[in-house]
Fold these 2 entries.
Entry 1:
Amino acid sequence: MTDSTDHLLDPLLDRLRAAVGDAHVLTDPADVAAFVVDWTGVHEGQALAVVRPGSTAEVADVVAACHATRTPVVPQGGNTGLVGGGVPDASGTQVVLSLGRMRRVRDVDPVAGTITVDAGVVLADVQAAAAHAGRLFPMSLGSEGSCTIGGNLATNAGGTAVLRYGMTRELALGLEVVLPDGRVWDGLRGLRKDNTGYDLTQLFVGSEGTLGVITGAVLRLFPETPRHATAWVAVPSVAAAVALLGIAQQHAGAHLATFEIANRQALDLVLAHLPGASDPLVAPSDWYVLVELAGAATDRGLDDALEAILGEAVEADLASDAAVAGSPAQRDALWALREGISEAQKVEGATLKHDVTLPIASLAAWAEAMGPVLECVLPGVRPVTYGHVGDGNLHYNVSAPVGGDDDLRAAAPALSAAIYDSVAAADGSISAEHGLGRTKAAAGAAYKSDVEVDLMRALKRALDPHGLMNPGVLLPE
Ligand code: FAD
Ligand code: MLT
Ligand code: ZN
């Protein structure tokens, strides 16, 4: 930023400093650096300033100041988003509003089954606060040590517990939100039943910072599930994994907590790049499933249920082998194979992420057909396919041909178009859980009907008539 720009911006910066204190308005490029590039490294922008308020009142002051000067605001939590929605564009005119200082657990009520938190509380800390009160906050993501509950709500995050507990929106009972003009909506009553009009909480869930800044939330808690039965299962195909899901549902019912898939390519990357990772099975397989049953201390039949599932699967040629966790350490090791895939693929090199969902019945045929299509677009391309198969959600994340990072970048539009076209043809969605952000804002609109896009734009205009909240994210400008 030049001195002359600084001079022009002084009134806004002064007001921001008055709102949150000098130390929490960052403009030095070294201080700002970590806030302007996303986890994937694909999106790197520039910020007019990074502002770090410590309370809802301070967020309201910051947003009101930005509203008065018509300055765009980019809300940011843990900056683990995978679609570039939490970082500014290249203009240098946007204020990044980081919730990182708002980390207070406001209340835990085990009997009501609720926890009330500031938006900047890290997901793992929400889980820990619930556990401290003898309850479970079930949401679980590979990024849970850094992502914030505000970011989870803003993206309607998924993860590995959706099969049993649902997406983030199903865990949200109420929100506190600073609106684009700086007013505060307090919707933190946390009632299970409240049929008094439009559901404003759900309007903000999944809005990716485009309608307001979430500053607090009331979330649902559940009984703890200290018992687990976990297996890493070799399966011949996606079709076999889907058939195994049916068997697992039949035997385990509501105890089925996790059902994740990974192809051999994904496992190979984890084995290559994650220190300490080892293949728990002797013979290689094209596909693997991580299956976990979870229950209360009184649920003693989980191991038997898992054994019955695996026995039936082997008999029906749906599984060739399985490693069953015999201790908490072995369970952690199996989970690390699944949770390490994103990180390992990032270390490997250029990656093109596709977070797609399809009707489960179409999943296997879709995944099978896609490989040859991509091979025609870019020979040698490596589909690293994994994810939440129990939810119909595959991370169809394509790695570059060996040594061909630039080729992948050049072919990216054609590869993504091929994938999105076939997802749309199969009545699927191009974003199952990561949101649209900057990466997919245009594609999101292109694959929706005009009526859907009109409705979304009408909501945006009604809440944010000046277009100040996260412009360019979710909806193309
Ligand atoms: P950020 O990245 O900071 O922001 C994400 C979006 O939310 C942006 O648009 C931002 O403007 C908006 N936002 C953030 N905070 C607020 C707020 N308080 N008010 C309004 N808007 C806000 N995601 C899944 O769904 N499932 C997974 O399994 C999963 N696994 C992951 C594994 C790894 C290794 C990584 C790096 C990411 C993974 N993610 C996953 C993606 C990411 O962690 C989630 O999208 C998460 O919800 C983002 O939270 P955050 O606090 O980091 O948000
Ligand atoms: C995961 O489930 O591990 C992530 O959502 C996938 C990703 O990083 O693309
Ligand atoms: Zn995921």
Note: The longest strand covers residues 227-235.
Entry 2:
Amino acid sequence: MSGTPSRVFHRLPNEPMPTAVAGDGCYIIDAEGKRYLDASGGAAVSCLGHSHPAVRKTMHEQIDKLAFAYSGFFTTEPLEELADYLIDNAPDGLERVFFVSGGSEALESAIKIARQYFVEIGQKQRTKLIARRQSYHGNTLGALSLGGNMARRELYQPLLSENAHHIAPCYAYRHQHHDETEEEYGLRAANELEAKIIELGPDTVAAFACEPVVGATAGVVPAVPGYLKRIREICDKYGVLLIFDEVMCGMGRTGYLYACEEDGVAPDLLCIAKGLGAGYQPIGAMLVSGRICKAIDEGSGAFMHGHTYMGHTLASATAMTVQKVIRDDNLLENVRLRGEQLRAALQERFGNHHHVGDIRGRGLFVGIELVADRATKQTFDPKLGLHNKIRLKAMEEGLMCYPGAGTVDGRNGVHILLAPPFIIDESHIAEIVEKLDRTLTSVLAEAKQVA
Ligand code: PMP
């Protein structure tokens, strides 16, 4: 670990951090030659692992031809091919793609296009947005206003939009009552949206946004069956646009190209990023329904939005190859198979662990919620800073996992998010479980001494 003070402002100046120098499949290698199994794909990004030969080949070839042609002047083959691929495989009704450089930009675009849509169709009074507590939609001001990650919002609250409102998340482990089925709970949770729309005034609400499977804020929480269908019905009833944020859960992570396919629900706007370029290039996108495109085409004619790097040539070519590898190597099948194996292996090892409250997920998107007491679901004291300790200890063990402290009913809950590359095999699963076990044993023993 190099401990020299750093001038990079997005890291703590004196926090020891390994220097990454190379990638090799599911591993990152540091300057001292130590190998780290990337069990979280960084922040659920690197879905093809590192230094993938086909992606490297495309990148070299594209740079040799043309790295960047500004999309205000030119279209390019990689850009058109990627748009076709995303739309050909998209949920019903999504007809065009707006490219950006990452997740926050995709959500900003969705907020702005929702607003423009209602202006175009003469419903200017629709300015309000609804999202859920325990959600994360990005760190730019619009996306941060929309999201419900209280820790990330707190400091910036005075700058955040007052147009954003929040309802409860769909979080069965914490909120499902003992005497209700999953479906009953899903309906109850979804109906909060209807109540909120009525409270705000139905003709003032523009859009509702949610992650079909919540990622970083709560440690992989899939919607229960029927929840998203009911959400769609409510949005339709009140003319509210539905935005799915699949920045983390989309592009194959759950075993489906788009996570909402599994729920059989199509949104009006669908935001993707992370797995789209698999970390080889920064790229995101917003898929837009025909209804919205038509209103804009027939109205002012253009979406009043854009960024310099949208439709970046190298990023488009790279993302296209990432998606071709996923398709041609049948990786979605591997995601479903290995996801089940990973969850089963975690269940076997940690299923009865006193401090493991819940193991959940879809495909290779897996969350482990840690609790001080399994029986009462009591959360750990936030002062213990367990999530940071887990990250550091896991790195020491040669494992990248993505621990976080979400908010559970106003208290801090600790979770570990796993999102390994789609190419993992059984040996990687065994390595994840072993290294995680050593990490948890050490960190939790230390926490016990402090407590
Ligand atoms: N939405 C979700 C669901 C995310 O997980 C993230 C990133 N963690 C974002 C939006 C923001 O993406 P970015 O960091 O690329 O701006």
Note: The radius of gyration is 22 Å.
